[in-house]
């Protein structure tokens, strides 16, 4: 059987969930596991791009036309919008601050929910990548619907804090609505992030998530670790910055779990 490309979205309508950090570090860990990975920065804040390139480089990419905004606006095959990262097996389609206007660009388009899916069709059919990981912005609009319709599965990072679960019920409802358009979309699971072992929030978050039926939680939990911020300051994934860091090892374990789950879901 040949290689299949799995497309996974990292989404949460609440900011500060660790969504982008999880996407970047799971992507890098998968590349270390021998998987070919394409990361797509779908957020106007460009933090996924900043995880691998300096601010100067990211702003240069954002101000040019080789970024996601122009590819989607022109409804072109995104193959030509890829750039290589400094790491083997890991490519990126960078974002742009202009992504703030993408909803407006899509609004009048025919079959607007499927535009990103169509733009990715050529890359997917080439089977060049094992995984395409998309970082979605923290909203519940038409652009996030586009991202989810292009994806086989969605991963939902949730912060272990009193506010971490705020709005998560809305997110689950939103996913159910999107499934009416994209019935093949699977919720791969919830990742608990920013866990502080000294506080009870982790247990409380887990208990609260159990109230939602058919929602699985990844067994790997990402704990609070200052090395994450140091790595981000250096525009590097944690494992590349300091592979002995606790969070680096946790992201590696999470990547193995993601790979295990993702191989079971069917493409659509």
From TrEMBL:
Entry superkingdom: Bacteria
PANTHER family: COBYRINIC ACID AC-DIAMIDE SYNTHASE, P-LOOP CONTAINING NUCLEOSIDE TRIPHOSPHATE HYDROLASE
Domain AAA: 6-180
InterPro entries for this protein: AAA_dom, DNA_Partitioning_ATPase, P-loop_NTPase
Record Gene3D superfamilies: P-loop containing nucleotide triphosphate hydrolases (3.40.50.300)
Membrane-spanning intervals of the chain: none
Protein name: AAA family ATPase
Native source species: Candidatus Acetatifactor stercoripullorum
Lineage per the UniProt record: Bacteria, Bacillati, Bacillota, Clostridia, Lachnospirales
